[in-house]
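Quick one: structure for this chain?
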Amino acid sequence: MKYSTKLFIMSCIPVIVFAVIALTTGFIQFRDSLYDEKQRNLKSTALAALALYSGHGYGDYGRKPDGDVWRGMNFNVSDETSIVDDLKKQTNVDVTFFYEDIAEMTSITNKDGVRFVQTSALETIKNHTLSNGSQLWCRRIEINGQTCQAYVIPIRRESDNAVIGALMASQSTRGFEKIIERYILTMTTTALAILGVVFLFIRWYVARFSQEFYDAANKSKHDLLTGLFNKRSFEEETKAAIANKKPDDVSVLMILDFDNFKHVNDTYGHQIGDEVLKAFGLILERAFRTDDIIGRVGGDEFMVYMPGMSAFSLKRADEISQEILRSLAVLKVGAAEHFSCSIGIATDAGNYDFKKLYLLADKALYESKKRGKACYVRFSSDENHN
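Got it. Here's what it folds into:
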């Protein structure tokens, strides 16, 4: 996986985690605030309904022999359904009056239009409101097979304050759930849009940072004048190539030392000298293969390692050396011309490491200098060069 891809993923993960946490926290807080608001509304409706009942008469509730529930002065609670209907029109909330645990009056109807209440919370109402006189908030209950929310308050007898029934304000969760669904859809869409913009920015920033990183890394590995590997990078690349060579491969290391380069600087100036070195670097890049490792390891000293060579292709090193010498001989930079270099070549079909190979190439280079420069000498590790 590329460095830029890893950096992009690592940068996106905290953003995604933060977005998920923020969305989850926001959803929970929004949902809880909706529940709190719904609880307050249903409680207010239940208390208003109880106050409305209390204003229609006085005295205690009781059941007559005919089964109807009465309150004081001939007030028949069982027949007074207009109260709950009026409340439903005003608040869109259903109200149910329980005398003991029987729904005596309600605005709720079944699918046939008959007033009817069957709720999964009846046992809970018995245990909490009817038995203990405590108010009850139901986030999700079933009423006639429909999911609802409800708030239940106790109804007390005036004479001794005993709980004789309950009043339930309820409402379907359909509208409530639609509000949550719209919120989730809106927030998710908004978050995805924001994340898309953020990811585009991160991608742009990572690409820019990665390019700067690659440029800096590339500059640290290459010689600024010629663009070839510098000494440290050349040694690292060559050591890695030697370590990974196949058993039948022959290591070929060449040291190329520019002849009389001080004379070029002294005669034509350092600017021309730099241009000559750059031209020499270009000659080397054209002469060698793309997978050959080329480096400038000193002021006017260059090295080349040729991986994947065989015993049958060693003469290619000689041919390249001749080609380089010919190219230098005809090179002209400004008024400077007639250049040459000395080349030492080391070959090893065994297990020479970089240090041994370098020492062998250096001996070959010294020999080429002794022979008058402008030539190449090749030494093999299986020969005696003492």
